[in-house]
Amino acid sequence: MRGVWVEASDLGQHHCLQYRLRRSGELVPGTLVIADRQIAEARQGVQEDVLFLTAVNSLADGAWQVTGLLDVYPYDGLKALVTYGFTVRGNTLYRSGTQTAGDQAFMQTQAYERCL
After folding, report:
1. 32: enclosing H helix or E strand
2. Which end of the chain has less Cβ packing within 10 Å, N or C?
3. Is the peptide bond before 29 cis (omega within 30 degrees of 0)?
4. What pTM was estimated for this model as a whole?
């Protein structure tokens, strides 16, 4: 699961190509960088949301439940404890989590493709 992942779309593949050609390490919005102890998600500009992992539980072959403290730009507020489900099938990573809009909560799943 470790590596650089981009949105599973033509635009995501374009972003991956840009990332590989630049070699600057600068990420485009929507890119996930998964490391041993944290997951960074690129936002606009140089902003990143960082999930500092507190627990990673294997659920099945290629499936994990990941819990961590989420730190969002400008990084001066309290960190929220969040849980995501991750599944890898081939070169596609699926991230699922609970989102809220007003008083409503719903599950959202995003698909990513491996870049590096």
Report:
1. strand 32-34
2. C
3. no
4. 0.86
